From TrEMBL, chain A:
It is found in: Cell membrane. GO terms for biological process: D-methionine transmembrane transport. Residues 12-203 form the ABC transmembrane type-1 domain. This is Methionine ABC transporter permease. The keyword Hydrolase does not apply. InterPro entries: AA_ABC_Transporter_Permease, MetI-like, MetI-like_sf. GO terms for cellular component: plasma membrane. The chain crosses the membrane at residues 16-39, 51-74, 80-100, 145-166, 186-209. Keywords: Cell membrane, Membrane, Transmembrane, Transmembrane helix, Transport.
From TrEMBL, chain B:
PANTHER family: AMINO ACID IMPORT ATP-BINDING PROTEIN (PTHR43166), METHIONINE IMPORT ATP-BINDING PROTEIN METN (PTHR43166:SF30). This is Phosphate ABC transporter ATP-binding protein. SMART domains: AAA, NIL. Transmembrane segments: none annotated. GO terms for cellular component: plasma membrane. Keywords: Amino-acid transport, ATP-binding, Cell membrane, Membrane, Nucleotide-binding, Translocase, Transport. InterPro entries: AAA+_ATPase (IPR003593), ABC_transporter-like_ATP-bd (IPR003439), ABC_transporter-like_CS (IPR017871), ACT-like_dom_sf (IPR045865), MetN_ABC (IPR041701), MetN_ABC_transporter-like (IPR050086), NIL_domain (IPR018449), P-loop_NTPase (IPR027417).
Length: 216, 342
């Protein structure tokens, strides 16, 4: 094996760091986007065709670019924001561009699952749009939102490994530079194993949490 | 008081336009239980949703206690909605919240303090008979219990009007009865005006004071439940009345009657105190006729007894005519069954 256990642990931390930071920023962008995509659609709370069509279009554009291309395509943006285009911090930018719109779609889906009747009851009670979003829509969708976030996080783990390929650090970087390019099978399998365990743990936690919220 | 003034509702535009309501004029007096009945697609939901502007009328006005809702700003509409409770066919409770929090929601939205809120919710749950269910979640309740939660929630802000859109349509007959009893209690104790939308004539007979029959977005007829039940003018209304009075003769008997040359079959409708008199035996003796009762029933509508008999008169023709005249003179309705197709 060409790498030390310390290197592996460092890489693991880098991955966790990349995933958590990009998750936070992606949610900050994706949540309001997802909410807007729901409430501005036809017949909804604050119907507004131009806002809906614009946001919908933007999300679609980002969702249609493969991550590996996005990674390279937005290098100027990354450089502008972080000052450099390589390293762990730099990969967070493309990760957010990738996961933000994805999370917006996931949140949109979860919120659309909320029974229309509940929103109607809220309106009949004289609730303001803000109250409807925060007191009705989000709480009713919470269990489904947790599952959506789990999917997004797992997606980010995968994407962060890919980002590693272009010098972003983390487990993916390790697997490619040592496992693939230098034929170090052991490193390859160890990183792979860690990634699998991570994803399993994330998914189980998400499932348990979501179930707990749904109480069934 | 709720007033509809020329309320028209059109969904969609151009060739896709659906006229759900066409110029509705109706008045629901304060303290009344008013029922609107109609078949599916008649426009009932559209009508009731115009009252709290969940649907905005395309034309016309809706007044609550004399105030024109269609002229209000969004903010004013929201504050007026707090004076209009609403319950739904599918309850529309928050599944993520306990019974307590569901009922507390309107209070929370209005900025009530914790203490006041707990007190009011306890009061409401007591009123609907669910004080022991405060910490349960909606999916742990039966349909009837869920509707009780819906009712408690609708009453939380002390509304003066309660709208019920098919509130009992998802419930079994026994549970329906208990919910209707509760609605009557709300009307009596809190003096809340209730507007009920339903396709079940039983609901109308059970608790309504007045009824309007809706079809294709038009009111066919309206009036006191007693009048509409005992003398339905429109064919659709007759259908609805028949759906629960169940007073039509079997086809085989009708055929027998039609085949007789001199058939004398009449429907006799008694109302009020006349139900107490031994009419038939008197007629039989007085005019020397044999009377064969083909159908008979007696019910109570709005607390007034209402009897319905279908009787075959056998005897001399002019005696029968005299007998019919004598019955009519007692202001009892008599109708020829064969011509009043029954
Ligand atoms: N949002 C809508 N968009 C388009 N058409 C609608 C809409 N809501 C109702 N309609 C149409 O308006 C007409 C009246 O509908 P409405 O829901 O008021 O009837 P209803 O009497 O409540 O029927 P039901 O007993 O089935 O609930 C129907 O033809 C229906 O298809
Ligand atoms: Mg309806």
């Amino acid at each position: 094996m060409l790498v030390s256990s310390e290197q592996i642990i460092d890489a693991l931390w880098e991955t966790i760091w990349m995933v958590s930071f990009s998750l936070v920023f992606s949610v900050i962008i994706g949540l309001p986007l997802g909410i807007l995509l729901v409430i501005t659609r036809k017949g909804h709370l604050l119907e507004n065709a131009s806002i809906f069509n614009t946001l919908n279009g933007i999300v679609n554009i980002f969702r249609s670019v493969p991550f590996i291309i996005l990674l390279v395509a937005i290098v100027p943006v990354t450089r502008f924001i972080v000052g450099t285009s390589i390293g762990t911090s730099a990969t967070i930018v493309p990760l957010v561009f990738y996961a933000g719109p994805y999370i917006a779609r996931l949140i949109e889906n979860s919120l659309l699952e909320v029974d229309k009747g509940v929103i109607e009851a809220a309106e009949a009670m004289g609730a303001t749009p803000g109250q409807i979003i925060f007191r009705f829509l989000l709480p009713e969708a919470l269990s489904s939102l947790v599952l959506a976030m789990t999917i997004a996080t797992v997606g980010l783990v995968g994407a962060s490994a890919m980002a590693g390929a272009v010098g972003g650090g983390g487990l993916g970087d390790l697997a490619i530079t040592y496992g693939y390019q230098r034929f170090d099978t052991a490193t390859m399998y160890i990183t792979l194993g860690i990634l699998i365990i991570m994803v399993q743990a994330l998914q189980s936690t998400g499932n348990i949490l979501s179930k707990k919220i749904r109480r069934s | 008081m709720i007033q509809f003034e020329g309320v028209t509702k059109t969904y969609g535009e151009g060739s896709n336009a659906v006229n759900a309501l066409s110029g509705i004029d109706l008045t629901v007096e304060t303290g009344e239980i008013f029922g609107v009945i109609g078949f599916s697609g008649a426009g009932k939901s559209s009508l009731i949703r115009c009252v709290n502007l969940l649907e905005r009328p395309t034309k016309g006005k809706v007044f609550i206690h004399g105030k024109d809702l269609t002229s209000l700003s969004k903010r004013e509409v929201r504050s007026t909605r707090k004076d209009i409770g609403m319950i739904f066919q599918h309850f529309n409770l928050l599944n993520s919240k306990t019974v307590f929090h569901n009922v507390a929601m309107p209070l929370l939205l209005s900025g009530f303090g914790k203490k006041e809120m707990s007190k009011r919710v306890a009061e409401l749950l007591d009123f609907v008979g669910l004080h022991d269910k405060a910490d349960q979640y909606p999916d742990q309740l039966s349909g009837g219990q869920k509707q009780r939660v819906g009712i408690a929630r609708a009453l939380a802000t002390n509304p003066s009007v309660l709208l019920c859109d098919e509130a009992t349509s998802a419930l079994d007959p026994e549970t329906t009865q208990s919910i209707l009893d509760l609605l009557r209690k709300i009307n009596k104790e809190y003096k809340i005006t209730i507007l009920i939308i339903t396709h079940e004539m039983g609901v109308i007979r059970e608790i309504c004071d007045k009824v309007a029959v809706l079809e294709n977005g038009v009111v066919l007829e309206h009036g006191s439940v007693f009048d509409v039940f005992t003398d339905p003018k429109h064919q659709t209304t007759q259908k609805f009345v028949r759906s629960i009075m169940n007073d039509h003769l079997p086809e085989s008997i009708l055929n027998d009657i039609r085949n007789k040359k001199n058939n004398h079959v009449y429907r006799i409708q008694f109302t009020g105190s006349s139900t107490g008199h031994p009419l038939l035996s008197k007629i039989s003796r007085e005019f020397d006729l044999d009377l064969n009762v083909l159908y008979g029933n007696i019910t109570e509508i709005q607390g007034i007894p209402y009897g319905n008999l279908i009787v075959e008169f056998m005897g001399e023709r002019n005696q029968i005519q005299k007998a019919l005249l004598s019955i009519q003179q007692q202001s009892i309705t008599v109708k020829d069954v064969i011509h009043h197709a029954s």
